[in-house]
Amino acid sequence: MAPTLSSTAMEDTVDTSVSQEKGEMCSSVGQVKGSEAEDTLHPSELEGQTCTTGNDGDKVPTPAMRRRAFLQYLALCCSMFVAGWNDGTLGPLLPRIQEVYHVGYAIVSLIFVVSCTGAVLGSCTFLYLFDRLGYGLVVVLASCMMMVAYCLEAAAVPFPVFVTAYFFIGYGGSFLNSGSNVFLASVSVGKASNRFGILHGVYGLGAMASPLISTQFAQMSRWSFVYLVHLGLLVVTLVMQVLAFKFKGQADCARDIGLPPPETESSLLQRYKRVFCMRVVHLMAFFAFVYVGIEVSIGSWIVTYVINLRHGGPDSGYIPSGLFGGLMLGRVALLPVSKLIGERRVIFVYILAVLGLELAVWHVQSVVADAICVAFIGIFLGPMFPIMTNHAGGILPPDLISGGVGWIASWGAAGAAVFPFVTGAIASKTGIKSLFPLVVALTGLLFCVWACVPRSRRQIKG
Protein backbone atom coordinates (compact mmCIF):
# COMPACT_ATOMS: atom_id res chain seq x y z
CA MET A 1 0.00 0.00 0.00
CA ALA A 2 1.36 3.38 -0.95
CA PRO A 3 1.54 5.91 1.89
CA THR A 4 -0.75 8.90 2.28
CA LEU A 5 0.69 11.77 0.29
CA SER A 6 -0.53 15.18 -0.77
CA SER A 7 -0.33 16.15 -4.40
CA THR A 8 1.86 19.10 -3.47
CA ALA A 9 4.66 16.56 -3.08
CA MET A 10 4.40 16.23 -6.85
CA GLU A 11 5.13 19.99 -7.55
CA ASP A 12 6.91 20.82 -10.82
CA THR A 13 10.65 20.62 -10.18
CA VAL A 14 11.34 23.28 -12.81
CA ASP A 15 9.04 25.89 -11.21
CA THR A 16 10.99 29.11 -10.94
CA SER A 17 9.15 30.27 -7.84
CA VAL A 18 11.26 28.78 -5.05
CA SER A 19 9.28 30.63 -2.42
CA GLN A 20 6.09 28.79 -3.34
CA GLU A 21 7.79 25.42 -3.24
CA LYS A 22 9.54 25.89 0.06
CA GLY A 23 7.86 23.99 2.85
CA GLU A 24 5.87 21.82 0.39
CA MET A 25 8.33 18.98 -0.18
CA CYS A 26 7.82 15.64 1.52
CA SER A 27 9.61 14.88 4.77
CA SER A 28 11.87 11.92 5.31
CA VAL A 29 8.95 9.82 6.55
CA GLY A 30 6.80 10.71 3.55
CA GLN A 31 4.66 13.35 5.28
CA VAL A 32 3.87 16.59 3.55
CA LYS A 33 4.52 19.99 4.97
CA GLY A 34 2.69 23.13 4.09
CA SER A 35 -0.32 23.62 1.93
CA GLU A 36 -2.40 20.82 0.45
CA ALA A 37 -3.45 22.66 -2.67
CA GLU A 38 -5.10 20.78 -5.57
CA ASP A 39 -2.77 19.41 -8.19
CA THR A 40 -2.93 21.47 -11.36
CA LEU A 41 0.21 20.42 -13.12
CA HIS A 42 1.49 17.94 -15.68
CA PRO A 43 1.11 14.20 -15.05
CA SER A 44 4.85 13.71 -15.15
CA GLU A 45 4.83 15.25 -11.68
CA LEU A 46 3.82 11.88 -10.30
CA GLU A 47 7.53 11.55 -9.89
CA GLY A 48 7.79 14.63 -7.68
CA GLN A 49 7.23 12.57 -4.53
CA THR A 50 10.90 11.63 -4.34
CA CYS A 51 13.19 12.97 -1.67
CA THR A 52 16.84 13.91 -1.38
CA THR A 53 18.16 16.41 1.12
CA GLY A 54 18.95 19.91 -0.18
CA ASN A 55 21.12 22.59 1.38
CA ASP A 56 18.17 24.06 3.26
CA GLY A 57 17.10 20.71 4.69
CA ASP A 58 14.11 20.35 2.39
CA LYS A 59 13.59 17.26 0.27
CA VAL A 60 13.91 17.49 -3.51
CA PRO A 61 13.43 14.90 -6.27
CA THR A 62 16.32 13.29 -8.08
CA PRO A 63 16.34 13.14 -11.90
CA ALA A 64 16.47 9.33 -11.93
CA MET A 65 13.40 9.10 -9.72
CA ARG A 66 11.56 11.66 -11.84
CA ARG A 67 12.26 9.59 -14.95
CA ARG A 68 11.10 6.42 -13.21
CA ALA A 69 7.89 8.07 -12.02
CA PHE A 70 7.14 9.41 -15.50
CA LEU A 71 7.70 5.93 -16.96
CA GLN A 72 5.28 4.47 -14.42
CA TYR A 73 2.63 7.03 -15.29
CA LEU A 74 3.17 6.36 -18.99
CA ALA A 75 2.65 2.63 -18.39
CA LEU A 76 -0.63 3.40 -16.58
CA CYS A 77 -1.74 5.46 -19.58
CA CYS A 78 -0.89 2.60 -21.95
CA SER A 79 -3.04 0.23 -19.89
CA MET A 80 -5.97 2.65 -19.97
CA PHE A 81 -5.55 3.22 -23.71
CA VAL A 82 -5.87 -0.53 -24.30
CA ALA A 83 -8.94 -0.68 -22.03
CA GLY A 84 -10.55 2.13 -24.02
CA TRP A 85 -9.58 0.57 -27.34
CA ASN A 86 -11.23 -2.69 -26.33
CA ASP A 87 -14.47 -1.00 -25.22
CA GLY A 88 -14.73 1.09 -28.37
CA THR A 89 -14.13 -1.70 -30.88
CA LEU A 90 -17.21 -3.88 -30.55
CA GLY A 91 -19.94 -1.41 -31.55
CA PRO A 92 -19.08 -1.15 -35.26
CA LEU A 93 -18.33 -4.89 -35.39
CA LEU A 94 -21.64 -6.12 -33.96
CA PRO A 95 -23.62 -5.94 -37.23
CA ARG A 96 -20.80 -7.81 -39.02
CA ILE A 97 -20.56 -10.45 -36.29
CA GLN A 98 -24.31 -11.02 -36.54
CA GLU A 99 -24.01 -11.37 -40.30
CA VAL A 100 -21.02 -13.75 -40.25
CA TYR A 101 -22.28 -16.04 -37.47
CA HIS A 102 -26.01 -15.71 -38.33
CA VAL A 103 -27.08 -14.75 -34.80
CA GLY A 104 -29.65 -12.29 -33.45
CA TYR A 105 -29.49 -9.63 -30.74
CA ALA A 106 -29.88 -12.05 -27.83
CA ILE A 107 -27.25 -14.54 -29.02
CA VAL A 108 -24.66 -11.93 -29.98
CA SER A 109 -25.20 -10.36 -26.55
CA LEU A 110 -23.69 -13.50 -25.02
CA ILE A 111 -20.39 -11.75 -25.74
CA PHE A 112 -21.30 -9.30 -22.99
CA VAL A 113 -22.46 -12.05 -20.62
CA VAL A 114 -19.18 -13.93 -20.87
CA SER A 115 -17.19 -10.73 -20.61
CA CYS A 116 -19.23 -9.79 -17.53
CA THR A 117 -18.47 -13.15 -15.93
CA GLY A 118 -14.76 -12.53 -16.36
CA ALA A 119 -15.04 -8.96 -15.07
CA VAL A 120 -17.01 -9.98 -11.97
CA LEU A 121 -14.52 -12.75 -11.19
CA GLY A 122 -11.76 -10.18 -11.63
CA SER A 123 -13.58 -7.88 -9.20
CA CYS A 124 -13.69 -10.60 -6.57
CA THR A 125 -10.06 -11.70 -6.91
CA PHE A 126 -8.31 -8.39 -7.60
CA LEU A 127 -7.57 -7.45 -3.99
CA TYR A 128 -6.21 -10.93 -3.16
CA LEU A 129 -3.95 -11.18 -6.21
CA PHE A 130 -2.87 -7.56 -5.91
CA ASP A 131 -1.74 -8.24 -2.34
CA ARG A 132 -0.17 -11.66 -2.97
CA LEU A 133 1.50 -11.26 -6.36
CA GLY A 134 2.11 -7.53 -6.47
CA TYR A 135 0.96 -4.89 -8.91
CA GLY A 136 3.77 -5.35 -11.44
CA LEU A 137 3.14 -9.07 -11.92
CA VAL A 138 -0.66 -8.84 -11.89
CA VAL A 139 -0.86 -6.33 -14.75
CA VAL A 140 1.59 -8.35 -16.86
CA LEU A 141 -0.46 -11.52 -16.36
CA ALA A 142 -3.64 -9.61 -17.26
CA SER A 143 -2.07 -8.37 -20.49
CA CYS A 144 -0.91 -11.88 -21.41
CA MET A 145 -4.39 -13.25 -20.77
CA MET A 146 -5.92 -10.68 -23.11
CA MET A 147 -3.30 -11.42 -25.77
CA VAL A 148 -4.35 -15.08 -25.84
CA ALA A 149 -7.98 -14.02 -26.32
CA TYR A 150 -7.16 -11.67 -29.17
CA CYS A 151 -5.16 -14.39 -30.94
CA LEU A 152 -8.26 -16.62 -30.89
CA GLU A 153 -10.56 -13.88 -32.13
CA ALA A 154 -8.21 -12.82 -34.91
CA ALA A 155 -8.50 -16.36 -36.30
CA ALA A 156 -12.32 -15.98 -36.58
CA VAL A 157 -12.84 -19.17 -34.61
CA PRO A 158 -16.34 -20.72 -34.29
CA PHE A 159 -18.81 -18.57 -32.39
CA PRO A 160 -18.72 -20.52 -29.07
CA VAL A 161 -14.92 -20.18 -28.92
CA PHE A 162 -15.12 -16.55 -30.07
CA VAL A 163 -17.50 -15.76 -27.21
CA THR A 164 -15.45 -17.72 -24.67
CA ALA A 165 -12.40 -15.61 -25.50
CA TYR A 166 -14.26 -12.61 -24.11
CA PHE A 167 -14.06 -14.17 -20.65
CA PHE A 168 -10.30 -13.59 -20.67
CA ILE A 169 -10.77 -10.09 -22.05
CA GLY A 170 -13.25 -9.26 -19.28
CA TYR A 171 -11.03 -10.74 -16.58
CA GLY A 172 -7.78 -9.17 -17.79
CA GLY A 173 -9.42 -5.85 -18.66
CA SER A 174 -10.84 -5.47 -15.16
CA PHE A 175 -7.32 -5.85 -13.77
CA LEU A 176 -5.77 -3.28 -16.12
CA ASN A 177 -8.52 -0.78 -15.40
CA SER A 178 -8.58 -1.38 -11.65
CA GLY A 179 -4.82 -1.56 -11.30
CA SER A 180 -4.25 1.78 -13.01
CA ASN A 181 -6.83 3.51 -10.83
CA VAL A 182 -5.56 1.87 -7.64
CA PHE A 183 -1.94 2.75 -8.29
CA LEU A 184 -2.65 6.42 -8.95
CA ALA A 185 -5.19 6.77 -6.13
CA SER A 186 -2.82 5.20 -3.63
CA VAL A 187 0.01 7.64 -4.33
CA SER A 188 -2.28 10.67 -4.58
CA VAL A 189 -4.93 10.25 -1.86
CA GLY A 190 -7.66 12.42 -3.34
CA LYS A 191 -5.31 15.11 -4.70
CA ALA A 192 -4.90 13.99 -8.32
CA SER A 193 -7.95 15.23 -10.17
CA ASN A 194 -5.84 16.48 -13.08
CA ARG A 195 -3.83 13.30 -13.36
CA PHE A 196 -6.99 11.20 -13.17
CA GLY A 197 -8.55 13.42 -15.83
CA ILE A 198 -5.60 12.86 -18.17
CA LEU A 199 -5.41 9.13 -17.38
CA HIS A 200 -9.07 8.61 -18.20
CA GLY A 201 -8.76 10.99 -21.14
CA VAL A 202 -6.27 8.49 -22.57
CA TYR A 203 -8.96 5.83 -22.12
CA GLY A 204 -11.26 8.04 -24.18
CA LEU A 205 -8.56 8.45 -26.83
CA GLY A 206 -8.31 4.68 -27.22
CA ALA A 207 -12.08 4.29 -27.34
CA MET A 208 -12.33 7.10 -29.92
CA ALA A 209 -9.63 5.70 -32.21
CA SER A 210 -10.77 2.07 -32.22
CA PRO A 211 -14.13 2.59 -34.04
CA LEU A 212 -12.24 4.34 -36.85
CA ILE A 213 -10.26 1.15 -37.36
CA SER A 214 -12.96 -1.41 -36.65
CA THR A 215 -15.43 0.31 -39.02
CA GLN A 216 -12.96 -0.22 -41.86
CA PHE A 217 -12.32 -3.85 -40.92
CA ALA A 218 -16.06 -4.52 -40.59
CA GLN A 219 -16.38 -3.94 -44.35
CA MET A 220 -13.54 -6.33 -45.25
CA SER A 221 -13.61 -10.07 -45.80
CA ARG A 222 -10.89 -10.48 -43.14
CA TRP A 223 -12.86 -8.51 -40.57
CA SER A 224 -11.41 -10.45 -37.64
CA PHE A 225 -7.90 -9.17 -38.37
CA VAL A 226 -8.88 -6.06 -36.43
CA TYR A 227 -7.92 -8.06 -33.34
CA LEU A 228 -4.33 -8.18 -34.59
CA VAL A 229 -4.25 -4.42 -34.02
CA HIS A 230 -5.40 -5.09 -30.44
CA LEU A 231 -2.62 -7.64 -30.12
CA GLY A 232 0.03 -5.17 -31.27
CA LEU A 233 -1.15 -2.54 -28.81
CA LEU A 234 -1.02 -5.07 -25.99
CA VAL A 235 2.55 -6.03 -26.87
CA VAL A 236 3.58 -2.37 -26.56
CA THR A 237 1.69 -2.10 -23.25
CA LEU A 238 3.29 -5.28 -21.94
CA VAL A 239 6.78 -3.95 -22.69
CA MET A 240 5.94 -0.68 -20.92
CA GLN A 241 4.62 -2.54 -17.87
CA VAL A 242 7.76 -4.67 -17.60
CA LEU A 243 10.09 -1.67 -17.99
CA ALA A 244 8.15 0.52 -15.55
CA PHE A 245 7.23 -1.94 -12.80
CA LYS A 246 9.67 -4.84 -13.30
CA PHE A 247 7.21 -7.38 -11.81
CA LYS A 248 7.44 -5.60 -8.45
CA GLY A 249 4.75 -4.95 -5.87
CA GLN A 250 3.36 -1.48 -5.34
CA ALA A 251 5.55 -0.92 -2.28
CA ASP A 252 8.73 -1.55 -4.26
CA CYS A 253 7.46 0.58 -7.15
CA ALA A 254 6.85 3.39 -4.66
CA ARG A 255 10.39 3.10 -3.29
CA ASP A 256 11.72 3.40 -6.84
CA ILE A 257 10.27 6.91 -7.05
CA GLY A 258 11.28 7.92 -3.53
CA LEU A 259 8.15 7.13 -1.54
CA PRO A 260 8.60 5.67 1.95
CA PRO A 261 7.49 2.07 2.51
CA PRO A 262 3.73 1.72 3.05
CA GLU A 263 2.45 0.81 6.46
CA THR A 264 0.49 -2.43 6.73
CA GLU A 265 -2.00 -1.91 9.51
CA SER A 266 -4.07 -5.04 9.07
CA SER A 267 -4.04 -8.44 7.46
CA LEU A 268 -5.49 -9.11 4.03
CA LEU A 269 -8.56 -10.79 5.55
CA GLN A 270 -9.16 -7.85 7.88
CA ARG A 271 -8.89 -5.40 4.97
CA TYR A 272 -11.33 -7.50 2.94
CA LYS A 273 -13.80 -7.34 5.81
CA ARG A 274 -13.37 -3.61 6.30
CA VAL A 275 -13.75 -2.86 2.59
CA PHE A 276 -16.86 -4.98 2.23
CA CYS A 277 -18.42 -3.52 5.39
CA MET A 278 -18.13 0.05 4.12
CA ARG A 279 -21.38 1.33 2.62
CA VAL A 280 -19.58 4.06 0.66
CA VAL A 281 -17.47 1.50 -1.22
CA HIS A 282 -20.57 -0.31 -2.45
CA LEU A 283 -22.33 2.95 -3.32
CA MET A 284 -19.41 4.09 -5.44
CA ALA A 285 -19.00 0.62 -6.96
CA PHE A 286 -22.67 0.73 -7.98
CA PHE A 287 -22.15 4.23 -9.39
CA ALA A 288 -19.22 2.94 -11.47
CA PHE A 289 -21.26 -0.12 -12.50
CA VAL A 290 -24.13 2.02 -13.85
CA TYR A 291 -21.94 4.79 -15.26
CA VAL A 292 -19.72 2.51 -17.36
CA GLY A 293 -22.81 0.51 -18.34
CA ILE A 294 -24.38 3.66 -19.83
CA GLU A 295 -21.19 4.63 -21.62
CA VAL A 296 -20.50 1.22 -23.19
CA SER A 297 -24.17 0.45 -23.95
CA ILE A 298 -24.39 3.59 -26.07
CA GLY A 299 -21.00 2.94 -27.65
CA SER A 300 -21.82 -0.70 -28.43
CA TRP A 301 -25.36 -0.31 -29.79
CA ILE A 302 -25.54 3.21 -31.25
CA VAL A 303 -24.41 1.99 -34.68
CA THR A 304 -27.17 -0.63 -34.81
CA TYR A 305 -29.65 1.97 -33.48
CA VAL A 306 -28.80 4.53 -36.18
CA ILE A 307 -28.72 2.00 -39.02
CA ASN A 308 -32.06 0.40 -38.10
CA LEU A 309 -34.05 3.42 -36.89
CA ARG A 310 -32.44 6.39 -38.66
CA HIS A 311 -31.52 4.48 -41.86
CA GLY A 312 -27.87 5.41 -41.56
CA GLY A 313 -25.28 3.96 -43.93
CA PRO A 314 -21.97 2.17 -43.27
CA ASP A 315 -20.43 5.44 -42.09
CA SER A 316 -22.64 5.20 -39.01
CA GLY A 317 -19.80 3.13 -37.59
CA TYR A 318 -17.92 6.35 -36.92
CA ILE A 319 -20.52 7.64 -34.45
CA PRO A 320 -18.94 5.82 -31.47
CA SER A 321 -15.75 7.75 -32.23
CA GLY A 322 -17.74 10.92 -31.58
CA LEU A 323 -18.95 9.53 -28.26
CA PHE A 324 -15.52 8.47 -27.04
CA GLY A 325 -13.81 11.50 -28.55
CA GLY A 326 -16.20 13.61 -26.48
CA LEU A 327 -15.32 11.45 -23.49
CA MET A 328 -11.64 12.23 -23.96
CA LEU A 329 -12.26 15.94 -24.53
CA GLY A 330 -14.57 16.29 -21.53
CA ARG A 331 -12.11 14.67 -19.15
CA VAL A 332 -9.50 17.30 -19.96
CA ALA A 333 -11.40 20.41 -21.11
CA LEU A 334 -13.93 20.40 -18.27
CA LEU A 335 -11.34 20.21 -15.49
CA PRO A 336 -11.56 23.98 -14.79
CA VAL A 337 -15.37 23.83 -14.79
CA SER A 338 -15.32 20.95 -12.32
CA LYS A 339 -13.02 22.84 -9.95
CA LEU A 340 -15.01 26.06 -10.26
CA ILE A 341 -18.35 24.47 -9.37
CA GLY A 342 -16.97 21.86 -7.01
CA GLU A 343 -16.22 18.29 -8.01
CA ARG A 344 -19.06 16.73 -6.08
CA ARG A 345 -21.71 19.26 -7.13
CA VAL A 346 -20.67 19.32 -10.77
CA ILE A 347 -21.50 15.62 -11.15
CA PHE A 348 -25.19 16.52 -10.76
CA VAL A 349 -24.85 19.17 -13.51
CA TYR A 350 -23.18 16.69 -15.87
CA ILE A 351 -25.81 14.01 -15.23
CA LEU A 352 -28.66 16.41 -16.01
CA ALA A 353 -26.90 17.50 -19.23
CA VAL A 354 -26.48 13.87 -20.29
CA LEU A 355 -30.12 13.17 -19.50
CA GLY A 356 -31.29 16.03 -21.74
CA LEU A 357 -29.07 14.91 -24.62
CA GLU A 358 -30.25 11.31 -24.35
CA LEU A 359 -33.85 12.49 -24.60
CA ALA A 360 -32.89 14.46 -27.72
CA VAL A 361 -31.38 11.39 -29.42
CA TRP A 362 -34.46 9.38 -28.45
CA HIS A 363 -36.95 11.81 -30.01
CA VAL A 364 -35.10 13.66 -32.81
CA GLN A 365 -35.35 11.77 -36.11
CA SER A 366 -32.06 12.86 -37.67
CA VAL A 367 -28.77 11.02 -38.17
CA VAL A 368 -26.70 14.22 -38.01
CA ALA A 369 -28.49 15.55 -34.91
CA ASP A 370 -28.18 12.18 -33.20
CA ALA A 371 -24.45 11.99 -33.97
CA ILE A 372 -23.87 15.49 -32.56
CA CYS A 373 -25.88 14.77 -29.42
CA VAL A 374 -24.01 11.49 -28.88
CA ALA A 375 -20.70 13.39 -29.06
CA PHE A 376 -21.93 15.86 -26.43
CA ILE A 377 -23.12 12.97 -24.27
CA GLY A 378 -19.50 11.81 -24.30
CA ILE A 379 -18.25 15.26 -23.29
CA PHE A 380 -20.49 15.42 -20.20
CA LEU A 381 -20.10 11.74 -19.29
CA GLY A 382 -16.32 12.02 -19.51
CA PRO A 383 -15.36 13.79 -16.26
CA MET A 384 -17.62 11.73 -13.99
CA PHE A 385 -15.50 8.61 -13.56
CA PRO A 386 -12.16 10.32 -12.82
CA ILE A 387 -13.92 12.68 -10.39
CA MET A 388 -15.54 9.73 -8.65
CA THR A 389 -12.24 7.82 -8.45
CA ASN A 390 -10.38 10.83 -7.08
CA HIS A 391 -13.19 11.39 -4.56
CA ALA A 392 -12.88 7.76 -3.42
CA GLY A 393 -9.14 8.22 -2.87
CA GLY A 394 -9.89 11.26 -0.72
CA ILE A 395 -12.60 9.85 1.54
CA LEU A 396 -11.53 6.23 2.04
CA PRO A 397 -9.12 5.36 4.89
CA PRO A 398 -5.57 5.37 3.48
CA ASP A 399 -4.95 1.66 4.12
CA LEU A 400 -8.14 0.74 2.25
CA ILE A 401 -7.56 2.78 -0.91
CA SER A 402 -6.10 -0.13 -2.90
CA GLY A 403 -8.90 -2.51 -1.99
CA GLY A 404 -11.68 0.06 -2.19
CA VAL A 405 -10.70 1.70 -5.48
CA GLY A 406 -9.88 -1.70 -6.97
CA TRP A 407 -13.34 -2.98 -6.06
CA ILE A 408 -15.00 0.15 -7.44
CA ALA A 409 -13.11 0.14 -10.74
CA SER A 410 -13.61 -3.61 -11.23
CA TRP A 411 -17.36 -3.19 -10.96
CA GLY A 412 -17.10 -0.48 -13.58
CA ALA A 413 -15.64 -3.14 -15.88
CA ALA A 414 -18.54 -5.42 -14.97
CA GLY A 415 -21.04 -2.71 -15.88
CA ALA A 416 -19.39 -2.48 -19.30
CA ALA A 417 -20.54 -6.05 -19.88
CA VAL A 418 -23.86 -6.34 -18.03
CA PHE A 419 -25.79 -3.42 -19.47
CA PRO A 420 -24.87 -3.96 -23.12
CA PHE A 421 -26.12 -7.53 -22.68
CA VAL A 422 -29.34 -6.30 -21.06
CA THR A 423 -29.78 -3.90 -23.97
CA GLY A 424 -29.36 -6.72 -26.47
CA ALA A 425 -31.69 -9.04 -24.60
CA ILE A 426 -34.42 -6.40 -24.48
CA ALA A 427 -33.81 -5.49 -28.13
CA SER A 428 -34.36 -9.12 -29.15
CA LYS A 429 -37.95 -8.77 -27.89
CA THR A 430 -38.83 -5.12 -28.52
CA GLY A 431 -36.27 -3.96 -31.07
CA ILE A 432 -33.26 -1.68 -30.76
CA LYS A 433 -35.59 1.26 -30.08
CA SER A 434 -35.37 0.23 -26.42
CA LEU A 435 -31.76 1.51 -26.19
CA PHE A 436 -32.45 5.10 -25.17
CA PRO A 437 -35.38 4.45 -22.83
CA LEU A 438 -33.03 2.13 -20.96
CA VAL A 439 -30.09 4.55 -20.77
CA VAL A 440 -32.39 7.41 -19.74
CA ALA A 441 -33.62 5.30 -16.82
CA LEU A 442 -30.04 4.37 -15.89
CA THR A 443 -28.97 8.02 -15.99
CA GLY A 444 -31.75 8.93 -13.56
CA LEU A 445 -30.56 6.11 -11.30
CA LEU A 446 -27.01 7.49 -11.50
CA PHE A 447 -28.24 10.85 -10.16
CA CYS A 448 -29.87 9.16 -7.17
CA VAL A 449 -26.81 7.03 -6.35
CA TRP A 450 -24.44 10.02 -6.40
CA ALA A 451 -26.74 11.90 -4.04
CA CYS A 452 -26.14 9.14 -1.48
CA VAL A 453 -22.33 9.26 -1.68
CA PRO A 454 -20.74 10.93 1.40
CA ARG A 455 -19.04 14.30 0.94
CA SER A 456 -16.09 13.66 3.24
CA ARG A 457 -14.30 11.00 5.25
CA ARG A 458 -16.03 12.17 8.43
CA GLN A 459 -19.40 11.06 7.05
CA ILE A 460 -18.29 7.49 6.36
CA LYS A 461 -19.74 4.75 8.49
CA GLY A 462 -18.38 1.23 8.09
Descriptive tags:
mainly alpha, globular, Growth Hormone, Chain: A
Q: Could you please say which CATH topology applies here? A: Growth Hormone, Chain: A
Structural Rg: 22 Å
Shape: globular
What proportion strand? under 5%
Within CATH, the superfamily carries the name: MFS general substrate transporter like domains
The count of helical stretches stands at 18
Helix percent reads over 70%
Question: Order of strands side by side in the largest beta sheet?
Answer: 1-2
Largest sheet: 2 strands, antiparallel
What is the end-to-end distance?
20 Å
Going by CATH, the architecture would be Up-down Bundle
In total, how many beta strands? 2
pLDDT averaged over residues: 80
Q: How many domains, in number, for the residues?
A: 1
Name of the top-level CATH class:
Mainly Alpha
Order of helices and strands: HEEHHHHHHHHHHHHHHHHH
User: Poorly predicted ranges (pLDDT <50, ≥5 residues)?
Assistant: 1-50
Structural class computed from helices and strand pairing: mainly alpha
Membrane topology: Multi-pass membrane protein
Pfam families: MFS_1
Protein name: MFS general substrate transporter
Biased composition (Basic and acidic residues): 35-45
